[in-house]
């Protein structure tokens, strides 16, 4: 029985028939539906280049991604999409391959540079990853397996995420995407599916490509240069191919786009109160709403003394000028409340600049080299060696050094200097919040060096009167990762520098009376403290920056060692045809070795027995600890294809896996295809898949991340309940007792290739993936929310920072505690119409309707969260994701138009929309006046002109315009960068021009 009672785990006969009828309906709707897609429906029997045209099989043996079977004409029961080299060249929105693959509707929620900008302590900033079905968990690991020519690649982060930037993009011949579990074929991580990058290993000739781009605003300049050369030698027995790539992208470190200045922010409704049923809690229909809890030069948010909060609302401007913040008519919390306002509509809503002084896109510099050497030692056996090296560096603006809850004593020299002694009379303390315009922005400076080497042999021989295929290989991968944050506040030094006083006469420092010094240096003259004025703009002493700021870093080396062998034979035949069998074994070891300079590590507090009980952070973010550990896995598999006659074929596989950490587990797959007539083929697959805990899950020593959380305890009339929002720092540690996640998957669908409509094919596939014992950890907001609902276990998961009452300290680790269910329907179609001997028009379309993406933690007080149909953040899953294309090919010219986007949806997954008659708003089910956000629709255009230079040389000149109509991103009602960065085009219209030259 499924954990989600309203969704039955079986696919009954009525639903299967419904799928088939839907497939037929697609044919009748072809003119409306077949508007384009990034790849044609693939029967898993044509080569990638021929897939889009539905070309016949050439009779050669092939291996289809998702299977180990080697057989001519094999039709996999699992859906397979192929992206051809031509599609990559003409439809990619950028010159980065990952951006094109991520336009496939099957991929959702992928980590990209645009949405990983604030992953400051996880090392993921700047990563280009792939996420099938939005099943990946960025805090733990990936459930999408990335392969290069059917083999694994070492991850570029401690949680095994493969950075697509490390793949030799200029040598990619095609990309094959298998949706549905494939653990029986490849082992761990293939829960949602597999993305396999196929390289052109036998390329002959020389080709060079170069392109450059810029946005319509004149920023974001980028370029890429690739060169590939290949040749045969020794009478064709030997072959060598080399590839090199160089790419650069300018960073965009400030947001000056109009869409980020509308004041579209969620604010609490003043007409709402606890237990209210006459008004929603939150308003999202207002504009000109901005943060009112900090300013660039500092805002007094509270004061104590004779009259509480008498100084609230004073903010410091250019040169330390004293100004009074104009709160708008709608301000929350109330100006006279205990904690002070956090949001306001109107008035000085634009003074806060935290959403403008943050980056849109990182600066990136990367280069890579790849080489492969092969030699046929006999007519039926080949030996080969390949190696690659990639280096990438990403620099990014992660936003201002925002600080809240800065405590000033009334004798602070800078406070007296700005406000005067008279205004401070009777004041016993002042609290300030600032976005620190004088301080350099917090930065990310990550560098990754990835090496990969493979040596192996493959060939064929005669067995049972048929060709048998074998291969054996050994592989080594290494990723050297330098994760560095720049301009990060040293917590204690910043406190010392802020706490500045006038030196008294006869002080130990020997300075003149009245000189501004750090209070701490009066008793510790050699502590190096330099006072820092944080009250104003243009008032800070740059000499203090090296004292209060630092660059925490962590260095890690991840290594992957793999050895494997595979054998594919045809041992016998039945009356219905040949039976194919593949067997194989694999050994793999993953390890991580880390180091962190002592000054960048948090202080570990231990009890009397030496047991670590808590940590004290030295830095506002970072606070790295080194991660060290390793595990190995031994695996063996068997797969078979058995024809059963009458167009029916069975495909089954089983894999035995033994982890040194998590123990033994079995994965399997059972599938079938049925082709009663040539025009239609039905397919179905049922599989058990796994994701084993990765190095980060198991061994993370403790990394800290920082952000802010809403306070569910907040009460405007009770200051003991704390402020409306808290800053926080969270420490995450590993759990060596984790066991593998288990997933049960269904895929059922049909492929239609009507003979009465040559050039047309379509497919419809229903998918259902349910993960049990899913590895995950609770976020800070979840922890405090569950505490507010009475779960004491979660109340013990955080404490108030002893140095800052407006900051919380969280501690968490991963467990096998949750379950997740994703289900939906994939649609894909292609139609090619010849218009002459060398002219054609091709329409392609692919779309995914996500029906559910349910997450259930099983924790008391929590509720099932369904992110399907939600557009509110990176973890959201729009109901519809689509990609259409139309290509007009002439003998020397090609014109391609692409339409892509997502449907509109909810802002909050469990939000309830109401106006006057509302249920009681709760943490689990908050109420909104409008819980709807827009969708996206982008149009891209490519023009390619081919020029024949001579009989051995060709050239192509191309122009790409992405986001042709300069459409805005998908806006969400939040402060900061007010857009869904996962699905949006954040840069606006961009232009790219380039040339490709091929010499044969």
Which range does the strand content fall in? over 45%
The proportion of residues forming helix, as a percent range, comes to under 10%
* Total count of helical runs of at least 4 residues: 13
Shape: elongated
- Any low-confidence stretches, pLDDT <50, length ≥5? 1-60
Instruction: Report the sheet with the most strands, covering strand number, pairing sense and barrel closure.
Output: 22 strands, antiparallel, barrel
Mean pLDDT, nearest integer?
88
Q: Based on helices, strands and strand pairing, what is the structural class?
A: mainly beta
Distance between the termini: 60 Å
Number of strands: 55
Radius of gyration: 30 Å
Describe what you observe in this structure.
The strands form 13 sheets. This protein has a 22-stranded antiparallel barrel. The chain contains 13 helices and 55 strands. The two termini are 60 Å apart. The relative contact order is 0.15. 9% of the residues lie in helices and 46% in strands. β5 and β6 form a beta hairpin. With 1000 residues, it is mainly beta.
């Amino acid at each position: 029985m499924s954990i989600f009672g309203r969704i039955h785990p079986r696919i009954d006969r009525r639903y299967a028939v419904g799928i088939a009828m839907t497939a037929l309906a697609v044919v009748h709707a072809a003119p409306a539906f077949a508007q384009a897609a990034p790849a044609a429906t693939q029967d898993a029997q044509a080569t990638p280049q021929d897939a889009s045209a539905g070309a016949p099989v050439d009779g050669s043996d092939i291996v289809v991604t998702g299977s180990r079977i080697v057989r001519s004409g094999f039709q996999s029961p699992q859906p397979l999409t192929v992206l051809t080299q031509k599609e990559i060249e003409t439809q990619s929105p950028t010159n980065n391959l990952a951006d094109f693959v991520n336009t496939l509707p099957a991929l959702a929620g992928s980590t990209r540079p645009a949405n990983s900008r604030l992953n400051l302590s996880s090392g993921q900033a700047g990563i280009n990853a792939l996420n099938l079905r939005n099943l990946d968990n960025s805090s733990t690991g990936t459930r999408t397996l990335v392969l290069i020519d059917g083999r694994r690649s070492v991850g570029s982060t401690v949680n095994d995420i493969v950075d697509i930037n490390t793949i030799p993009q200029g040598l990619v011949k095609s990309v094959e995407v298998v949706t549905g579990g494939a653990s029986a074929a490849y082992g761990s991580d293939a829960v949602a599916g597999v993305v396999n990058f196929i390289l052109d290993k036998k390329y002959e000739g020389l080709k060079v490509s170069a392109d450059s781009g810029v946005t319509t605003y004149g920023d974001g300049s980028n370029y890429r240069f690739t060169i590939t050369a290949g040749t045969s030698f020794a009478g064709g027995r030997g072959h060598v191919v080399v590839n090199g790539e160089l790419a650069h992208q300018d960073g965009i470190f400030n947001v000056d786009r109009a869409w980020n200045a509308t004041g579209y922010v969620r604010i609490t409704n003043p007409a709402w109160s606890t237990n209210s049923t006459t008004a929603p809690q939150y308003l999202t229909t207002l504009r000109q709403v901005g943060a009112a809890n900090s300013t660039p030069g500092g805002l007094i948010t509270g004061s104590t003394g004779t009259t509480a909060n008498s100084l609230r609302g004073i903010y410091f401007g250019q040169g330390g000028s004293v100004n009074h913040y104009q709160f708008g008519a709608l301000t929350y919390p109330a100006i006279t409340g205990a904690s002070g306002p956090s949001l306001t509509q109107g008035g000085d809503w634009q003074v806060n600049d935290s959403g403008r002084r943050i980056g849109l896109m990182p600066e990136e510099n990367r280069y890579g080299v790849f080489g492969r050497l092969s030699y046929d030692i006999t007519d039926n056996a080949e030996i080969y060696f390949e190696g690659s090296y990639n280096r990438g560096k990403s620099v990014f603006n992660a936003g201002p050094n925002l600080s809240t809850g800065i405590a000033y004593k009334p004798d602070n020299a800078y406070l007296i200097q700005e406000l005067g002694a008279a205004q401070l009379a009777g004041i016993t303390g002042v609290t300030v919040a600032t976005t620190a315009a004088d301080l350099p922005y917090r930065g990310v400076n990550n560098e990754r060096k990835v090496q990969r080497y493979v040596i192996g042999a493959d060939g064929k021989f005669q067995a049972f009167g048929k060709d048998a295929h074998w291969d054996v290989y050994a592989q080594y991968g290494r990723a050297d990762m330098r994760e560095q944050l720049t301009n990060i506040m040293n917590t204690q030094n910043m406190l010392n520098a802020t706490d500045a006083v006038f030196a008294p006469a006869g002080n130990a420092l020997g300075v003149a009376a009245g000189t501004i010094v750090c209070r701490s240096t009066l008793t510790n003259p050699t502590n190096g403290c330099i006072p820092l004025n944080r009250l104003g703009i243009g008032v800070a002493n740059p000499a203090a920056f090296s004292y209060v700021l630092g660059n925490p870093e962590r260095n890690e080396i991840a290594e992957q060692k793999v050895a494997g062998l595979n054998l594919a034979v045809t041992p016998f035949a039945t009356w219905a045809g040949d039976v194919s069998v593949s067997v194989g074994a694999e050994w793999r070891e993953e390890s991580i070795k880390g180091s962190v300079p002592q000054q960048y590590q948090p202080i570990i507090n231990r009890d009397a027995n030496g047991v670590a009980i808590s940590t004290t952070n030295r830095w506002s973010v970072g606070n790295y600890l080194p991660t060290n550990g390793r595990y190995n896995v031994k695996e063996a598999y068997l797969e078979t294809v058995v024809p059963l006659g009458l167009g029916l074929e069975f495909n089954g596989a089983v894999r035995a896996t033994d982890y040194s950490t998590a123990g033994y587990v079995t994965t399997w797959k059972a599938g079938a295809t049925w082709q009663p007539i040539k025009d239609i083929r039905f397919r179905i697959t049922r599989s058990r898949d796994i994701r084993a805990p990765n190095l980060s899950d198991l061994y993370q020593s403790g990394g800290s991340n920082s952000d802010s959380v809403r306070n569910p305890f907040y009460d405007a009339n009770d200051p003991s309940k704390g402020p409306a929002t808290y800053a926080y720092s969270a420490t995450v540690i590993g759990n060596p007792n984790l066991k593998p996640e288990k997933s049960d998957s269904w895929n059922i669908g049909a492929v239609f290739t009507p003979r009465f409509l040559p050039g047309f094919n379509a497919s419809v596939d229903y998918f259902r993936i349910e993960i049990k014992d899913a590895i995950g950890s609770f976020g800070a907001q979840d922890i405090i929310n569950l505490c507010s609902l009475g779960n004491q276990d979660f109340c013990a998961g955080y404490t108030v920072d002893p140095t800052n009452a407006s900051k919380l300290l969280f501690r968490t680790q991963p467990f096998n505690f949750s379950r997740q269910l994703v289900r939906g329907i994939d649609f894909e179609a292609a139609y090619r119409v010849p218009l002459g001997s060398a002219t054609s028009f091709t329409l392609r379309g692919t779309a995914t309707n996500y029906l559910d993406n349910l997450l259930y933690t099983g924790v008391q007080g929590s509720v099932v969260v369904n992110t399907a149909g939600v557009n509110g953040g990176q973890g959201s899953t729009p109901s519809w994701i689509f990609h259409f294309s139309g290509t007009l090919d002439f003998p020397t010219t090609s014109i391609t138009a692409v339409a892509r986007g997502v449907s509109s949806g909810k802002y909050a997954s469990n939000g309830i929309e109401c106006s006057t008659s509302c249920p009681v708003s709760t943490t689990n089910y908050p109420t909104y006046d409008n819980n709807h956000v827009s969708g996206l629709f982008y149009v891209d255009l490519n023009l390619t002109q081919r020029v024949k230079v001579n009989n051995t040389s060709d050239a192509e000149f191309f122009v790409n315009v992405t986001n042709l109509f300069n459409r805005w991103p998908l806006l969400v009602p939040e402060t900061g960068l007010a857009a869904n960065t996962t699905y949006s085009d954040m840069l606006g219209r961009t232009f790219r021009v380039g040339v490709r030259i091929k010499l044969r």
